[in-house]
Amino acid sequence: MASWIRFCQNGYRNYPGTQNSIFLPDPKKDKGYFLIHKTGEIIIEPEFNSFCELKYSYIDITEGNGKVIVKNRDILPGKNFVASYVTACKHKNGNDWWIIQAENDTSLFYTFLLTNDTIILANIQDFDIHFDVWTSVGQAVFSPDGSKWVMYGDINSYNPGQGGCLVFDFDRASGELSNMQLIEIIDSASANGVAISPNSQFLYISNGYDLYQADLTVDDINSSVVHIDHWDGYADPLFGTLFGASQLAPDCKIYISCPGTNRHMHVINKPNDKGLACDFRQHAIEFPNLIYHNSITNFPHFRIDEENICDSTITWIPDEYIVKAPMVLSVSPNPASQSTNIYITSDNFEYGKIRVHDINGNVLKVLDIDSDSPLELDTSGFVPGVYVVEYVSFLSGDRDVEKLIIAE
């Protein structure tokens, strides 16, 4: 009800898309950030449609915590773009940024260039494929090397669930798209996401109930599509953990959100590997609290011209990101070697379960805890590294987590 009041009343104005904003550094690199974003309106009468304008705001960071000095400025006034699909790629010059948008009720692509405190329209291209209001449920992504641009959504159809994935070659110098190929996915739901492996070879298409992989290096990309996995039926607490928006992370893994509100994300541990060797794990990452529908970061490939687009050695979990609950969980000694003790501190202790996860979200041990006395955890078989200890109350569902370091 609260979401309806916030987003849907008064003509369904400002309903949030799944990929409707992105922060980009000022090309001059000394003042602040551009926020590229969309404001949308869902239209009910005379027929279901949407109106979505592309805007920018500017945040000056030269003083204190920063200040918004330009807000909601139209980039191309009066143009109605499909919701979502806000992503960017660095220009060949290593300084400016390209932004591509599809216009609603047309087959046109607009390419904008963010350069020297201004955003200009660089190209308009027509690829003879129609976009409508249903297109807005998807996601777009540039390959890490900038040679491809992919757009995935309900394309050329008024029937949600009829997914189409458009793959283009992209020229970072001119901003032009070419060589469009269409991958049709027509067997699932309309919660769509795409991500590309760090080596820019493999495209991952998450389509609600199913995950696919395609090879971007072959001439006929359609012929390379393989099925990776189907949703296993898991739900937490009410919504199924289907496959939604995706993002290549700085640790070289691809994380996939769930379309419904729950506590989980999926992970592709080895996205550079072909087929099932990519090591896809469903609902492998569990969060201490509920996360919002399609909660996923949206950022460009900042390291596009560097030798390593990401760093697979990243395993650190900062203490400030550990969310505390009313129950206080502590682990001592920490760091540990052969064993450690787990404590639950509370005025009203509740019976619960202890789960120990590795950095990939795999559950290594599950223990019951039935008193506030210390519970000994045998860690003699753990390899040195970072782990997560999680407590869940049987009665209230309260949760707490603590980082555990196993020393060499």
What's the helix and strand layout?
Elements: H1 2-7, H2 9-12, E1 21-25, E2 32-43, E3 49-60, E4 67-74, E5 88-90, E6 97-102, E7 108-115, E8 118-126, E9 139-142, E10 148-153, E11 163-170, E12 177-185, E13 192-196, E14 202-207, E15 210-215, E16 226-230, E17 246-248, E18 254-256, E19 262-268, E20 280-291, E21 328-332, E22 339-345, E23 352-357, E24 363-369, E25 375-378, E26 385-393, E27 399-406
Antiparallel strand pairs: 1-2, 2-3, 3-4, 5-6, 6-7, 7-8, 9-10, 10-11, 11-12, 13-14, 14-15, 15-16, 17-18, 18-19, 19-20, 21-22, 22-25, 23-24, 23-26, 26-27
N- and C-termini, Cα separation = 52 Å
> How many helices?
2
Q: Pairing-aware structural class of the strands and helices?
A: mainly beta
Order of helices and strands: HHEEEEEEEEEEEEEEEEEEEEEEEEEEE
Strand adjacency order, main sheet? 1-2-3-4
Mean pLDDT, to the nearest integer, reads: 84
